[in-house]
Design brief:
CATH class of the largest domain: Alpha Beta
Strand order of the largest sheet: 3-2-1-4-7-6-8-5
Number of domains: 2
Structural class: alpha/beta
Low-confidence stretches: none
Number of strands: 8
Distance between the termini: 48 Å
Order of helices and strands: EHEHEHEEHEHEHHEHHHH
CATH topology of the largest domain: Spore Coat Polysaccharide Biosynthesis Protein SpsA, Chain A
CATH superfamily of the largest domain: Spore Coat Polysaccharide Biosynthesis Protein SpsA, Chain A
CATH architecture of the largest domain: Alpha-Beta Complex
Strand content: 15-25%
Number of helices: 11
Length: 291
C-alpha cells in the first residue's frame, strides 16, 4: 500500500461510547486526499481496543504516561502521511467533506496548521455550548489560536518543533505561538465537528485544575501567559472576579430555558474557582521560580 497523503490521528482512552460514530464519520469522508486512520490508545479498559479491532485502521498504544503533548508527538511519529490531522475521540465530523475542507489550506506552502469549527452536541452541556459558540464562530476569526481537538499540522513541523509534553493543557496554544510569519494557522469553519463534555463536577474539576496547572507552568517555565491565566490563587479573589460572569451565564441559560443546566451552575462555579485555584497552587509548588 502506498503512503497516504494524510494521517488522521485519533487519541483515545475509554471512548467506546462515542468512538464508533466518530470512526464511521471519518471513514465516510469523500473528496479528500488519500488518508489513513491511526488510533492512539492510552490504557483503555472499557472495550475501546476491541472496538478499534473491528475497523480497517492502524492502532498504537501510548502507555500510562499520558499528556496531550506526548500523544500529539507520538501520533506524528507514527503517522505515514505528510499531513497529520488530530481528532478527539468524541469529536464527530459533520458531513463527508470535513477532511477535504480541513486540509485544503495546505495548498498554500505557508500554511503550518489548520483547525476547524466545533459545535456543541445538542442537550449534552448547555453551559459549555455558550463558550463553544463564541470560540468557534461560523466565520473567522476564531476565539483561539489553534485547537488539536479538530486540527491539522504538517508532520515535518511537529517533528522539528514538538508539542510541549509537560504542560497539563493548552499545548496547542503554546505550539501555535511558535508559528511566525510568513507561516500561518488557518481557521476553517467549514470543517465542522460536534464536541461536548459532560456536566459533572468531576469533569469540570479535572479540566479547571488542569487550567490552573497549565497557567502556572506557562508563566514559570515558558515566561508566557495563557488566555485564561490569573496569578492569584486565592479562592475568594477568583470567585469575586468571576461573579459577574456567572450571573451573565445564568441569565443566558434562563433565557434559553435551560433549567437543568442552571441547576448545575453551583458545581460549575466550584470547579472554576476552587479547582482552578488548586491547580494554580499546585503549579506554583511544582514548577518553581518564574521564567
Amino acid at each position: 500500500m502506498s503512503a497516504p497523503a494524510v494521517s488522521v490521528v485519533i487519541r483515545c482512552r475509554n471512548e467506546a461510547r462515542d468512538l464508533g460514530g466518530v470512526l464511521d464519520a471519518v471513514l465516510a469522508q469523500q473528496g479528500a486526499p488519500p488518508f489513513e486512520v491511526l488510533a492512539l490508545d492510552s490504557g483503555s479498559t472499557d472495550g475501546t481496543l476491541e472496538l478499534l479491532g473491528r475497523y480497517p485502521i492502524r492502532t498504537a498504544t501510548l502507555g500510562d504516561a499520558f499528556s496531550y503533548g506526548r500523544a500529539l508527538n507520538t501520533g506524528a511519529q507514527f503517522a505515514r502521511g505528510p499531513l497529520v490531522v488530530y481528532l478527539s475521540a468524541h469529536a464527530r465530523p459533520r458531513g463527508r467533506d470535513w477532511l477535504a475542507a480541513l486540509v485544503a489550506p495546505f495548498a498554500d506552502p505557508h500554511t503550518a496548521a489548520t483547525f476547524g469549527r466545533q459545535i456543541a452536541v445538542p442537550g449534552v452541556n448547555p453551559i459549555e455550548a455558550i463558550t463553544t459558540a463564541r470560540v468557534f464562530p461560523p466565520a473567522p476569526p476564531a476565539g483561539v489560536t489553534f485547537s488539536t481537538a479538530n486540527g491539522a499540522v504538517r508532520r515535518d513541523a511537529v517533528l522539528a518543533r514538538p508539542f510541549d509534553e509537560e504542560i497539563a493543557i493548552a499545548e496547542d496554544h503554546v505550539w501555535a505561538t511558535g508559528v511566525v510569519p510568513p507561516g500561518r494557522i488557518a481557521y476553517v469553519p467549514a470543517a465542522v465537528v460536534t464536541h461536548s463534555h459532560p456536566m459533572t463536577l468531576a469533569a469540570w474539576g479535572g479540566r479547571f485544575r488542569a487550567h490552573g496547572l497549565a497557567a502556572e507552568y506557562a508563566r514559570r517555565r515558558l515566561g508566557m501567559a495563557l488566555p485564561w491565566g490569573e496569578p492569584d490563587d486565592r479562592v475568594a479573589r477568583v470567585a469575586r472576579g468571576r461573579a459577574g460572569a456567572f450571573l451573565r451565564l445564568a441569565a443566558t441559560l434562563a433565557r434559553d430555558g435551560e433549567l437543568g443546566a442552571i441547576a448545575r451552575l453551583p458545581a460549575y462555579a466550584i470547579a472554576r474557582t476552587v479547582c482552578y485555584a488548586r491547580g494554580l497552587r499546585e503549579g506554583a509548588a511544582r514548577f518553581g521560580s518564574r521564567a
